[in-house]
């Protein structure tokens, strides 16, 4: 069923666009402080971008994939925010991440996967060993596993790059 993959792609894209919009809003709050509201173009651009994502991409995600899969993907917003803010990918906003922060982000990723595989709307009442194989072979589980395969190496690369940067700069805090 390739439709659920399309729904998942719309859902992840929606989370990514909304995260970028929120980071732009954060930038606008500091950069445009004291500017009259009608001159805060960055703020209104970010609000429009977030609204556009929620009005177009989120409904398409729900149309193509079951809500039991799409709802947990909201957790990827936290993951996207952590990675984008850590490396200053949006408007140069940089926020440090400790090992604990990286570990927490990894736990969120695992939690999203577990919820999507066995959360509301699942076709079973309880998770038992005989049903595990059937659950893991469901399209939702395969899709979330694919997302994790993309996200976990990204987080590991982030931790490695952070360690390299700290070694080059002399163990800078953050």
Explain how this protein is built.
- It is a single chain.
- This protein has seven helices and no strands.
- The model is unreliable at 121-127 (pLDDT under 50).
- The protein has helices spanning 2-31, 41-64, 67-70, 76-86, 99-118, 129-136, 139-169.
- It is mainly α.
- α1 (2-31) runs antiparallel to α2 and α4 (76-86) runs antiparallel to α5.
- It is flat, with a radius of gyration of 19 Å.
How confident overall, as mean pLDDT? 77
Quick one: overall form? flat
Which structural class do the helices and strands define?
mainly alpha
Oligomer: single chain
Number of strands: 0
Number of helices, counting only DSSP H or I runs of 4 residues or more: 7
From the alpha carbons, calculate the radius of gyration and give it in angstroms: 19 Å
Q: Segments where pLDDT lies below 50 for 5+ residues?
A: 121-127
Q: State the distance separating the first and last CA atoms.
A: 44 Å
> Biggest sheet: strands, sense, closure?
none
Elements, N to C (H/E): HHHHHHH
* Relative strand content: under 5%
User: How much helical structure, as a percent, in the residues?
Assistant: over 70%
């Amino acid at each position: 069923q390739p439709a659920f993959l399309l729904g998942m792609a719309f859902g992840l894209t929606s989370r990514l666009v909304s995260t970028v919009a929120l980071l732009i809003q954060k930038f606008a709050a500091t950069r445009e402080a004291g500017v009259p509201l009608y001159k805060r173009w960055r703020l209104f651009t970010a609000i429009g971008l977030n609204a556009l994502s929620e009005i177009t991409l989120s409904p398409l995600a729900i149309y193509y994939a079951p809500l039991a899969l799409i709802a947990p993907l909201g957790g990827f917003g936290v993951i996207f925010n952590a990675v984008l803010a850590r490396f200053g990918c949006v408007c140069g906003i940089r926020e440090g991440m400790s090992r604990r922060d990286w570990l927490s982000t990894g736990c969120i990723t695992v939690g999203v996967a577990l919820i999507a595989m066995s959360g509301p709307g699942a076709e079973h009442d309880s998770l038992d060993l005989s049903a595990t194989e059937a659950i893991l072979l469901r399209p939702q589980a395969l899709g979330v596993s694919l997302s994790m395969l993309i996200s976990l190496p990204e987080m590991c690369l982030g931790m490695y790059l952070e360690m390299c940067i700290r070694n080059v700069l002399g163990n800078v805090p953050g």
